[in-house]
Design a protein that fits this description.
Length: 353
């Protein structure tokens, strides 16, 4: 029989750590998106403006929707950073935890497709269903909160009191009328650790992030040069940022996933200088199969040069002359103007040390 409990049981069997159900309604929290866009906080993410109408109500995503099944998948693993093996190298790069394993878009989408197929096999009546991961036009955090999966923290991440916030959100909108869960209650209290820890001041207020200042946005979404005033704040982040989750008290003892999908060849903690001297082919091989492949190699090179500039080690200046190990045409991505700009900046910064 296809009911709420059967759906949650199946979700667990498919590898989802959390599952809740919310009604398919236009909750008030969804309306803040228009104000957020008006403030210019989306920056270069034009797709947010283009999809705003759909994101305003799950029924614009699936007109017949009556229920929203929301899943949470823990991606935190006990895999050690290479920093622990190489010492505390000043140019050791940081890669956001969510990008260290396989590309979650594909892994989770495949599981959702199997989920929907199972639901249809269990129902005697036809129904509509549409799955979503974060590439789809759904404000999944709002529905996660109303499905009881977790509350939206002051850093805008969904937090579960037992599992923490290291989780992928996804789900299924369906025309089925299912028993819903009680919304999760905000338990951030008076804590402001995430706001205080953000080096760029991107969290401008509780649950309000100015993406144009966020290190994740600056290292991933910005197509051209990273604004010079922000480059020192990038530190050693080469892809994304976890600072606001690292300091969250609810992540002091977070859940750990044993799912092999979130374990991968070592990427976090590697030397920026070593990566810079790899060929484009080798860099692509390193990030292949992960969410990092959404980043053009020219942006990755830009970020590596920025990290080298921030390392404060004047000896690294010579490394910038050796992209691709100095082999001709091995690192064509470095000929991009955005990379050349980052290299020139890194040289100037290192020269001041």
């Amino acid at each position: 029989m296809l009911n709420a409990q059967a759906i949650k049981d199946r979700a667990a069997q498919l590898g989802f750590d959390l599952c809740g159900i919310a009604p398919a309604l236009a909750f008030p929290e969804l309306q803040f998106l228009s104000e957020w866009l008006a403030r210019g906080y989306a920056g270069e993410m034009e797709y947010m403006e283009k999809s705003a109408a759909t994101r305003a109500d799950i029924r614009n995503f699936l007109p017949s929707a009556r229920s929203v099944i929301v899943t949470g998948t823990i991606y935190n693993t006990d895999q050690r950073s290479a920093i622990g093996h190489r010492g505390s190298a000043r140019d050791a790069v940081r890669v956001a935890k969510y990008a260290r394993g396989q590309d979650y878009h594909k892994v989770i989408e495949d599981r959702l497709i199997e989920f929907v197929a199972w639901m249809k096999s269990m129902s005697s009546e036809p129904f509509d269903a549409a799955h979503f991961v974060d590439k789809h036009h759904v404000q999944e955090r709002v529905y996660a909160q109303h499905a009881g999966v977790g509350w939206i923290g002051k850093n805008t991440c969904v937090i579960n009191r037992d599992q923490g916030s290291w989780m992928f959100l996804a789900g299924i909108a369906t025309s089925l009328k299912l028993e819903t869960d009680a919304p999760a209650l905000d338990q951030c209290g008076a804590c402001t650790l995430c706001l205080d820890a953000c080096p760029t001041g991107a969290i401008v207020d509780a649950r309000v992030v100015d993406a144009t200042k966020c290190i994740s946005y600056l290292t991933i979404e910005v197509d051209g040069p990273i604004p010079e005033e922000q480059r020192p704040h990038i530190g050693n982040h080469v892809y994304g940022c976890d600072i606001c989750q690292d300091v969250c008290p609810w992540n002091l003892a977070p859940a750990v996933s044993e799912d092999e999908a979130w374990r991968a060849p070592q990427r976090d903690g590697l030397s920026a200088a070593d990566l810079w001297q790899r060929s484009d082919f080798d860099l692509h091989t390193l990030i292949k199969g992960s969410a990092m492949t959404y980043l053009p190699l020219s942006r990755l090179r830009r970020n590596l040069a920025t990290v080298i500039g921030n390392a404060g080690d004047t000896a690294l200046s010579g490394v910038l002359d050796q992209p691709g190990g100095g082999i001709r045409n091995a690192a064509r991505s470095t000929t991009s103007p955005v990379v050349e700009d980052a290299v020139a900046w890194a040289r100037r910064r290192l020269a001041k040390k």
